[in-house]
Amino acid sequence: MKITIDRTDEGFLVVLNGRVDTTNYNEFENSIAHLYNEKGAAIYLDCSGLDYISSSGLRIFLTLQKKVKVQGGMLKIFAMQPQIKEIFDISGFSSIFSIYPDYETAKHAG
Amino acid sequence: MNRNRLSFKIIVRVLLFCFILGGSIFTIYYLFARKTIERESRENAIHLAESAVYKIEEIINPAEMIPNNLAWIMETNTLSRDSIYAFLKQLVRNNESVFAGAIAFEPHMFSEEEYAFAPYAYRSGEEIRSRDLWSPAYNYFIMDWYQIPALLKKPYWSEPYYDEGGGGVLMTTYSAPFYRNINNSRVLAGIITIDISLEWLTEIVNSVKIFDTGYAFLISGNGVYVTHPNASHIMNQTIFTYAKEIDEPKIREIGRDMISGRSKFSNVDLKEIGKVWIYHTKIPSSKWSLGVVYPHREMYAGLRNLNIMIFMLSTVALVLLTIATIRIINRQIGPLSKFARAARSIAGGDFDTELPAVDENHEMKELHDSFRFMQEELTKYIADLKETTSAKEKIESELRIARGIQTDMIPHIFPPFPNLPEIGLYASLESAMEVGGDLYDFFPIDDDHLCFAIGDVSGKGVPASLFMAVTITLIRSMSDKNRSCAQIVESVNKTLTINNESNMFVTLFVGILNLRTGELQYCNAGHNPPVLLNRNQEPRMFSNTKAIPVGIFEVFDYRDETVVLDKSDQIFLYTDGVTEAEDADKNLFGEAALIKSLSENRDKSSKELTDRVKQSVKEFVNGHTQSDDITMMCITYWGKNENKIK
Amino acid sequence: MVFTPHWIPQAQFAGYYVALDQGFYKDEGLDVDIVHATANIASLDLLKNGEADVVSSFMLDAMEQRAKGVPLVNIGQLSQHSALMMVTKKKSGIDTPQKLHNKKLGIWSSGFEDVPLAFMQEHGIRMDLIRILQTVNLFLVDGVDALMVMYYNEYDQINNCGIDEDELNTFFFSDYNLDIPEDGIYCLEDSLNSKGDAYAGFLKATLRGWEYASQHREYALDLVIGEMDRAHLPNNRVHQRWMLEKVLEMMNPGKKKVTKGQLLKSDFDRAMEVFRMAKETQGLQTFGFEQFYQLRAESKK
User: Fold this and answer.
1) What is the complex's ipTM, to 2 decimals?
2) Which CATH class is domain A2-108?
3) Are residues B380 and B433 in the same domain?
4) Tell me: the pLDDT tens digits for A80-110?
5) Are A and B neighbours with ≥3 CB pairs closer than 8 A?
6) Count of CB contacts below 8 A, A vs B?
7) Residues B35, B166: one domain?
8) C163-to-B280, B331, C131 alpha-carbon distances in Å
9) pTM of the full structure
10) Chains C and B touch, contact meaning at least 3 pairs of CB atoms under 8 angstroms apart
11) pLDDT tens across C6-53, in order?
12) B532, B526, B646, B528: which is closest to B590 by C-alpha?
């Protein structure tokens, strides 16, 4: 799994590529862990390259969401692949996270 | 054997190298020595020849002076007969090298009356005698010693001859013309001669010593041997007749070179003494020539002997070298085979094998030290490994126990309710690891209500299993006949959310089935929607829930939902381990496949249906490693008063 | 019987030595003593004064003596060809008779000038005749331009002094119609008349000796060397071998229609011609072939 984190005018752009499952969820968490401490940051999560996510991975998304909320920022997820969206739908996570179709929409949303 | 082969190889190579090196050195030395000998011999030959010539000239030159001086006297004086005789006698007496002397006059030159006059003084024993050479029987005018210098108008050294009068002594005559001024023209007046014995010359030449078979020889202007170690050659042979006799044209060439006065080195094969060098040089005054013969065999004899000695010494040295090399190598390489044995025994497990002692030999010491290090490291590694293994075994045995405990938590006796003919139920749970995060449970709340649940803790392994244990315990404890599914889920959620730093969550489906009415109340907290199987319709999934899994938000509004089951309706519950089962190419089993499998197998008993679906999944994954817990539960509702098939 | 060869011992007389050593003379009932001529006394002189019973001689010399009145006769002609020749050095450039004109010719003091004199007349040239006592040395040191040599003797001597054959120009008199026989056996006419058989026997034994010598050359050479050693004469086998070979060649009739030992009349006539050309024959006797050559008697023994 490849992950890139860039600072943008809007905040942070995190781009995910590959899978997040039990083999590498630790690595995933380590990569984004520093975002837990960003105060008031707007974090945009680009999931166009995310092929699969297991419950372990969902847990980290959850942690990120919670931490960001605590710090007064927001987490916006966009460009999910259909099967990933389905997982979020099934698990009800769609109602927890802010999910958008694309980056533009995500940026312009409130 | 290996050791022998190695030392054998080394020895052969070393010896071969020594041999080649030795051979090269020897060849170079030999060639160099030969060259040196050659050069020195040449120089020696030249030196011998030159010094002999010098000695000869020492005697000849003064002798040559005599007629020349006499010629001058004769030209400027007119002497009487008696005074000429006296003069000649004195001359012979005063010069010990001179045997005889004469002054031979041209016809009528001495006196008008006499045709010829040739006064001659000679040694006879102790005395000096004299006489007139001329007689009709002795026409000196046509003899070489007179005729040649007279005609050529220059001095002449005669060919050697035996002097009859003097007792067979080898002689030569030096003649010089003298002149008179007659009527203002210089006219030949006669020839002055001195006879010289060649004994002294022979002595000088014969005294030249060249090893045993080498020698010096002298030839006259015609090539006649004047001296030679083989006395029969003297005066009998010329160098040219000798060349014909031994059929060696090279000798003829040498002879021609000699009589033309050249100095040269020649290489030739003389039958009697083998290959020789001949250096020849001329005697300046008489134009005779001196040759020195250098036999190769003797020249190189010293070298040959030296070679033989070196060869023998070398052979002995090589033998000694071989023996020494063998011993040295064996001593050094000996430890190698011991190391080999030690290695074998270490490999066999005896890490404390004693290594062969090695003294101050660097490569071997390195080997020894490396071995020792390897020994120690191996020992340490094995110890670590043992520790780790036992630790691992400990963990594994604890995990097995944990599995046992977990299994016991889940009802696993089927069919579970023989005294409840209204339902047929079968469930199966296969963990991906020893312990897992999936759960199911079912239990009657009262005579008419069956509560069942299925859930999936996020993650797998020990962390998920702990959460699973908590969850399943909570479900049981939170459910009673007064609570609805939502209430149960809410309670479970609240409890789980507190002290959940790790943000673990559980997808959960709780259902309560009224056995009399077939009414199913349920609450789905983020779990995969179950499939409803109806006799008359295609399998359809419950709708997706909006509720989130438990354990995330402490407060969440969970809602109940209801559906009524007809008789023989079946509910199939599963976790995402079924739909997300992967094959080797990471293709997922998928909901479509699940629906299909269920559709094909409805009307079967719960157990059979479940088994069939399990089989489909197994076939799909085709041996690929199970990545998630696979849990299925099938509940068949028979209703009241239906047949007793479960 | 005293036989005198006309020069000092050498292979030139090998046949006689062989005949003596093999006892051929004894076979003819002859007790032969070989006494050589010297430099001072010629064989014909010894024949003249009776010290020798039979001699060998150069034919032209014998003819001269006969012309001077010595009653000698030829009882056997051994040499059928002339071995006389002249040599010049190639480097002198004298390679034709014409180029010999006015040049110096070295010639033996003991004679042999008839043939060259005839040669000079027949080719219309003249040469300075320089008498030499014995050696070839004057020629070797270029004291004379040309030298009279015997093919079987001095020619080889020159070669043995280091001059290669290809450094010489040769004039064989036999090539110039002067192929006049040389060595023959002579005795006084009276002796022949009185003791014809003996002389016949002598000739026969002599011819046998020469025949044997030609078949056993090394043996003949051994005898020659022995003779020369006894006479304290310097010698070597190589030169004597050459001499023997060439002398035997001369004795071969070759193209001439004559048997061994015989004298061809035409040869005699030609010799007479040469003699007349060379010598002043006034006051000398004349004689014919039959008078000169008189061996007809055979030995019946």
Assistant:
1) 0.88
2) alpha beta
3) no
4) 999 889 888 888 888 888 899 988 888 887 6
5) yes
6) 64
7) yes
8) 19, 79, 22
9) 0.61
10) yes
11) 888 999 999 999 999 999 999 888 899 999 987 778 888 888 888 888
12) B528
